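Hey L., structure's done. Input below.
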Amino acid sequence: MKIGYARVSTEEQSLDLQIDALRAAGCNRIFSDFGISGKGFDRPGLHDALISVKHGGTFVVWRLDRLGRSLPRLISFVDDLGKRNAEFQSLTEQIDTTSSGGRLIFHIMGALAEFERSLISERTRAGMEAARKKGQHLGRPRAMTYDEISSAEKALLAGNTYQSIAQDHGISPRTLQRYLSNKRKQNR
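Output:
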């Protein structure tokens, strides 16, 4: 049994093209999500379609991006189908895991996605190391300077509350407490 899935992300778009292609591909049932982004995989139509895919069935989409935008998540999705002894087919990209060639193409896409993630990670680490060597601060900007922390300590000793001091510096009382605690640890 072939289960089709169609999705459009805006109200102005139409599902007609996708549904016609899914019917022509022989889908017995078609599920859809209308006006829902492809960023996440938590969609009611997608959920219902997955429940309908049975052992030996095929999950069919018109195009990969109708299923989702994240290649690693798409690969995980297709792997999960495989674990359930179901196949996957994308009509536009002509990916069909019922054939050995289709499985090969999908695995190559997965390897390329993993390679891309690895390159991004390497570039990020190299950039962070270069910034550290230049003495640059990494991460979020500090909420308080050393002088502001010292001033806050004096204000606290003078009887001001954490709430009022934090409000003067535009931070939360918890952030103020964390900065003061870190300064005390450094002074030990």
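The longest helix spans residues 100-133. The chain has a mean pLDDT of 89.

-- N.
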